[in-house]
């Protein structure tokens, strides 16, 4: 199968304070690499990854990796509106990064209206728990995630623990949102795109689609 063929493109934004490890999570996910001395992000970086969310349904994930530093905020804010999913990251060893989660969340929600961004909250650098460095308990983080209406995962780009799982959870959440109608495709909004019909025809020739494909999906891509 040609790996560049896809049925959906989801735009996903990485959010959270500087140094919580947003770029490191993406590097681990897309290249299976971890760098102790990774550069701070300047403005926004781009990453791409493909994921099959169900048999024959390939999603192109386009990641916008924003700089956490305040001085880049005017640039990074302009990327909120065309995102369908957000990975909201804090560092479990940094109380301040956890305290700022609510601010990140409300800033995004205000700016994307009438659209909606679906989130997953990630407590990152879980490997540092072993060093006794944890400053935010799992229970507290789970409570906040529940309050904000999003799932919570603990991950580490250093060990690789739960990195793929966090991105896949978010992708599946968006996909389910699309099927249920929670996420709506609208003119002039690029959070979700559907593949060109000719690409789909090629794909259909090699992959049989489930016969129970929901109506929403058919409307979008056929
Ligand atoms: P900005 O680009 O400034 O917003 O920062 P960022 O959130 O992208 O953080 P980045 O990925 O640049 O990581 C910051 C530092 O944390 C680097 O020194 C990384 O090596 C380190 N780091 C990232 N992930 C982990 C992790 O899972 N565990 C540990 N122990 N360190 C990590
Ligand atoms: Mg970065």
How many domains make up the coordinates?
Answer: 1
- The level 1 CATH classification is Alpha Beta
Gross CATH architecture: 3-Layer(aba) Sandwich
Spatial extent as radius of gyration: 18 Å
Low-confidence segments, ≥5 residues, pLDDT <50? 197-201, 207-222
* CATH fold description: Rossmann fold
- Helix vs. strand class: alpha/beta
Please give the count of helices.
Answer: 8
Beta content: 15-25%
Overall average residue pLDDT:
89
Largest sheet: number of strands, sense, barrel closure: 7 strands, mixed
Distance between the amino and carboxyl termini: 20 Å
In percent, how helical is the residue content? 25-40%
Q: Strand-and-helix sequence, N→C?
A: EHEEHEHHEHEHEHH
Number of E-type strands:
7
Bound molecules: guanosine-5'-triphosphate, magnesium ion
Would you mind describing this structure in some detail?
It is globular, with a radius of gyration of 18 Å. Strands 1, 2, 3, 4, 5, 6 and 7 form a seven-stranded mixed β-sheet that branches. It has one domain: P-loop containing nucleotide triphosphate hydrolases (Rossmann fold, 3-Layer(aba) Sandwich), CATH 3.40.50.300. The two termini are about 20 Å apart. It is about 35% helix and about 25% strand. The longest helix is centred in the C-terminal third of the chain and has 18 residues, at about 165-180. The protein has about 220 residues and is α/β, with parallel strands linked by helices. Bound molecules: guanosine-5'-triphosphate and magnesium ion (MG). Magnesium ion binds near residues 41 and 65.
């Amino acid at each position: 199968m040609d790996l560049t063929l896809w049925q959906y493109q989801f735009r996903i934004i990485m959010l959270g304070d500087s140094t919580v490890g947003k770029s490191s999570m993406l590097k681990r996910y897309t290249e299976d690499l971890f760098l102790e001395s990774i550069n701070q992000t300047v403005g926004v970086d781009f990453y791409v990854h493909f994921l099959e969310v169900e048999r024959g349904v390939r999603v192109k994930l386009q990641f916008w990796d924003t700089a956490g530093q305040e001085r880049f905020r005017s640039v990074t804010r302009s990327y909120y509106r065309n995102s369908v999913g957000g990975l909201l990251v804090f560092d479990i060893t940094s109380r301040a990064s956890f305290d700022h989660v609510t601010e990140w969340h409300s800033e995004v929600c205000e700016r994307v209206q009438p659209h909606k961004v679906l989130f997953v909250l990630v407590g990152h650098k879980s490997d540092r728990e072993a060093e006794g460095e944890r400053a935010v308990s799992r229970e507290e983080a789970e409570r906040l995630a529940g309050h904000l209406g999003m799932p919570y995962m603990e991950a580490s780009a250093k060990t690789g623990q739960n990195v793929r799982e966090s991105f896949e959870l978010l992708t599946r959440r968006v996909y389910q949102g699309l099927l249920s109608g929670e996420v709506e495709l609208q003119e002039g909004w690029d959070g979700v795109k559907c593949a060109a019909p000719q690409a789909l025809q090629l794909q259909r020739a090699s992959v049989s689609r489930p016969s129970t494909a929901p109506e929403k999906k058919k409307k979008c891509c056929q």
